[in-house]
């Protein structure tokens, strides 16, 4: 009898855990599960040929945001580079067929030369997909169900930046959270002449089902920042924390249910574009500028008395990424620098295991598949590196078109987004899924 009760208890626990385990495998936001960029897929080749490509699908418009996935559906935001019309797209991950497309007219406005009108990665859950974009006068946050039917829309007001919009929403429990950083310093003359004022930055949370605002936390507005938050579970225990980075607030932690600040540490003077990660119980972020000379990486221990554990500045032996996010494997942190370098550091000490020249430019962020790192350079060559203390380039695989996006990994496949400037279109390329 005791054995039966024990078996029944185990079965109940397994059933209770199953939904969370399944959800953890969905690539439902920028860089997948909790922004880690990590997957344990076993069916993605290191080096591939045409036989490993499942399909190529051409899509309208261009964009540098990433595809996301739920089940057998890929979701994507794209835009016409001339009219700024936004396209929300759903693609069958097994066949590459476009299941539906929703078009939203918009107005063109000034962008950074390396940006696009679709630089925000959507977020999704089991019921809806969430997209965001902005023109200077209006910021749109929209939810559609998985059939493409609009569920709700919110106007979050004006948005100030000379670079273009790039905030990517995430889902936490039944909340949709959005880091809405805006520019307050150094506005260009054309911006002030057109009536733009210094922006106000907020972290927002909305009910996923209704779009009703649950909380907002005003942040310090300096440089517009594009970091996507993640959920941090303190190694010493305690409630979940929403962690993000910005120029004004540095590395900071909020209660994801209320928006109340847990702690912050002022460590950045320049813009944060990439997104923070955790490794070795620490939180990592970088900041910099397009000039790259002053970039640096910082490792912070959070808590009531947050502290900087170590900091690595750009030098002849290390380069901190500006746009590509960091990626971890155990206690190792890998840095793919925008312009021609890569490095590996120890997450607990800051020791540099290796620093190597790549002679290529990276704009998207890396993903890790088991013990290998995949990142596409701007020419559309996918580099596969060993996630180890020794520098090893395992393969270089051409995609056929340039890319500035981060891939998605779902259902045992990796999906890259490329673009063409000559005839504006995006292309999704799906690779893997077959037993080696």
Distance between the termini: 45 Å
The percentage helix is under 10%
Low-confidence stretches: 1-24
Rg, nearest Å: 21 Å
Proportion of strand residues: 35-45%
Count of helical regions: 2
Mean pLDDT rating = 91
Shape: globular
Spatial strand sequence of the major β-sheet: 1-27-28-29-30
**SSE-based structural type:** mainly beta
According to DSSP, the number of beta strands is 33
Q: What's the main sheet like?
A: 5 strands, mixed
Features of this protein?
disordered N terminus; 43% strand; 5-stranded mixed sheet; 4-stranded antiparallel sheet; mainly beta; 436 residues; 2 helices
Could you please describe the fold and organization of this structure?
The chain is mainly beta and 436 residues long. The protein has 2 helices and 33 strands. A 5-stranded mixed sheet has the order 1-27-28-29-30, with no helix packed on it. Strands 2-33-32-31 form a 4-stranded antiparallel sheet, with no helix packed on it. Strands 3-4-5-6 form a 4-stranded antiparallel sheet, with no helix packed on it. Strand 16 and strand 17 form a beta hairpin. It starts with a helix and ends with a strand. Residues 1-24 have low confidence and may be disordered.
């Amino acid at each position: 009898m005791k054995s039966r009760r024990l078996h029944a208890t185990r079965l109940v626990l397994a059933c209770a855990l199953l939904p969370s385990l399944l959800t953890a495998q969905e690539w439902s936001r920028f860089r997948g599960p909790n922004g880690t960029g990590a997957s344990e897929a076993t069916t993605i080749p290191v080096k591939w040929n045409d036989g490993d490509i499942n399909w190529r699908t051409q899509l309208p418009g261009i964009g540098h945001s990433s595809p996301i996935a739920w089940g057998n559906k890929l979701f994507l935001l794209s835009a016409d580079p001339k009219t700024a019309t936004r396209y929300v797209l759903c693609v069958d991950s097994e066949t590459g067929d476009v299941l539906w497309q929703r078009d939203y007219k918009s107005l063109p406005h000034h962008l950074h030369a390396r940006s696009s009108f679709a630089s925000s990665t959507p977020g999704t859950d089991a019921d809806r997909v969430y997209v965001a974009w902005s023109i200077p006068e209006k910021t749109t946050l929209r939810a559609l169900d998985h059939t493409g039917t609009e569920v709700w829309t919110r106007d979050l007001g004006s948005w100030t930046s000379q670079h273009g919009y790039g905030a990517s929403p995430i889902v936490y429990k039944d909340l949709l959270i959005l880091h809405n950083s805006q520019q307050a310093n150094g506005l260009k003359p054309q911006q002030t002449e057109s009536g733009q004022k210094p922006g106000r930055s907020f972290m927002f949370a909305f009910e996923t089902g209704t779009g009703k605002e649950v909380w907002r936390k005003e942040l310090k507005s300096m440089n517009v920042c594009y970091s996507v938050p993640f959920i941090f579970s303190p190694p010493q225990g305690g409630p979940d924390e929403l962690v993000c980075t910005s120029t004004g607030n540095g590395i900071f932690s909020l209660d994801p249910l209320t928006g109340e600040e847990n702690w912050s540490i002022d460590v950045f003077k320049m813009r944060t574009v990439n997104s923070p990660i955790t490794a070795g119980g620490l939180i990592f972020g970088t900041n910099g500028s397009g000039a790259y000379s002053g970039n640096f990486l910082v490792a912070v221990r959070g808590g009531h008395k947050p502290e900087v554990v170590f900091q690595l500045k750009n030098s002849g032996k290390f380069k901190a990424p500006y746009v590509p996010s960091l990626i971890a494997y155990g206690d190792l942190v890998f840095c793919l620098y925008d312009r021609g370098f890569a490095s590996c550091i120890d997450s607990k000490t800051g020791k540099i295991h290796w620093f190597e020249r790549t002679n290529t430019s990276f704009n998207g962020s890396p993903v890790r598949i088991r013990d290998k790192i995949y990142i596409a350079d701007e020419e559309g060559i996918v580099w596969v590196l060993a996630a180890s203390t020794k520098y090893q380039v395992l393969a270089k695989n051409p995609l056929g078109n340039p890319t500035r996006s981060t891939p998605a990994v779902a259902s045992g496949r990796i999906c890259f987004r490329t673009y063409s400037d000559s005839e504006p279109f995006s292309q999704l390329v799906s690779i893997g899924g077959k037993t080696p």
